[in-house]
Specification:
- A ten-stranded mixed β-sheet has the order 9-8-5-4-3-2-1-10-11-12.
- The protein contains 13 helices and twelve strands.
- 32% of the residues lie in helices and 14% in strands.
- It is an alpha/beta fold.
- The two termini are 21 Å apart.
- The protein has one domain: TIM Barrel, CATH 3.20.20.
Length: 371
């Protein structure tokens, strides 16, 4: 800490987050090849049901196939507290706020001092407003558009309609009362339409950033698109130039508590890194630090959601502490099974640095427990 001010961490700097004082002891243990007593971060899918029908949904093949009962979901919240989990992201799969038990989960976790993040399509924020405003450290809304027409193109409801106005109104309501951060997520979507015409949302990035600032969002995040196997989809040179120009213009909106950030995916597309991310290590240390809990099973990570070869157990019928105690988190070989872009690749490389005695100084304070 310099000059009496707390050192902050960039919200996208996953490596720096490893060095927070409450996480580093577990990180250091894992770096030496030992097992963790419990995950530090859990991605939790309360349900696989969703009220939208997005054509590019990465989980499209897994949707509308089940959910946790409200009773089991409440039990899971208690088990996360028992495991001393530091942060939970309610996500999907489906739309997490569509489950009537999610409100109780947010309250249980929040009152236990566990950091709570929520990834949502925004249509049901108003039904969960009090809990989100009180306990969520951040809420990230997947909007991907700046107008109702483009929203209908990339995020239609099941009847082909647009819930854009409802989503934006819900975000404004949350912005007025929130204690945590509110984010506007923008996945750059490009597709070939009828007769080979290119269609998508790549022309509305700047307008969406302007809208995000007007709503009262704290950040606007730009992301790149995956294919069904989680490989990055490149953009043509012409479209990439347009996207880069709009991101550069959007960055000029930053200030007064508003920031424009790139995900690691859009950074990779800008660098022309290609769809494949080779890895020369055979065990993912991050699987000891994070896990995914869904109605269809507990998996090593969200990239392997629904993959039977990456399944650790069944959280519908088994207590999560029991699954963690007996499961083998080394069932996935990153060099073979994870050749797609992984946001935690740099964290795995840093674990090797820590194991080799080249750790960075531990920070004086916790800042963001979503490692």
């Amino acid at each position: 800490m310099k000059g009496g001010k707390r050192v902050t961490i960039d919200r996208m700097d996953l490596v720096a987050k490893l060095y927070q004082p409450s996480t580093f002891p577990v990180v250091a243990r894992v770096a030496t090849g030992r097992r963790s007593a419990g995950p530090l971060v859990v991605d939790l899918d309360p349900t696989t049901f969703c009220d939208l029908a997005c054509p590019e949904c990465i989980s499209g093949k897994l949707l509308n196939q089940g959910r946790f009962s409200p009773e089991r979901l409440a039990e899971l919240a208690g088990e996360l507290v028992e495991l001393d989990v530091r942060a939970v992201i309610l996500i999907g799969g489906g739309e997490p706020l569509a489950h009537r038990g999610t409100r109780r989960v947010i309250t249980t976790l929040g009152e236990a001092g566990i950091a709570v993040g929520v990834v949502t399509n925004g249509t049901m924020i108003d039904h969960n407003l009090d809990e989100l405003a009180t306990y969520a450290d951040w809420v990230r809304v997947s909007v991907d558009a700046a107008t109702p027409e483009t929203f209908r193109l990339v995020r239609p409801d099941r009847r082909g309609g647009s819930a854009f106005d409802r989503v934006i109104d819900n975000m404004r309501k949350l912005a007025e009362v929130k204690k945590g951060a509110l984010g506007y997520s923008y996945l750059v979507i490009v597709r070939s339409g009828p007769d080979g015409v290119i269609e998508g949302n790549h022309g509305e990035i700047l307008a969406a950033a302007e809208l995000a600032r007007d709503i009262g969002c704290d950040f606007f995040e730009v992301k790149a698109q995956f294919d069904d196997e989680h490989h990055l989809i490149d953009l043509s040179p012409e479209i990439l130039r347009e996207v880069n120009a709009q991101i550069d213009a959007a960055r000029r909106l930053a200030g007064d508590g508003f920031e424009v950030v790139n995900s690691s995916t859009i950074d990779s597309v800008q660098r022309r890194a290609g769809p494949v991310q080779p890895k020369d290590y055979h065990r993912c240390g991050v699987t000891e630090l994070r896990t995914l809990v869904t109605p269809s099973g507990v998996y090593v990570c969200p990239y392997h959601r629904g993959n039977p070869a990456a399944r650790l157990g069944d959280a519908v019928t088994e207590p999560l502490p029991d699954i963690w105690r007996r499961s083998d988190r080394g069932i996935i070989d990153p060099s073979r099974d994870c050749r797609f872009h992984c946001a935690r690749h740099a964290s795995n490389l840093e674990l090797d640095e820590i194991a080799a005695g080249r750790a960075q100084p531990v920070l004086e304070h916790d800042h963001d427990l979503f490692i």
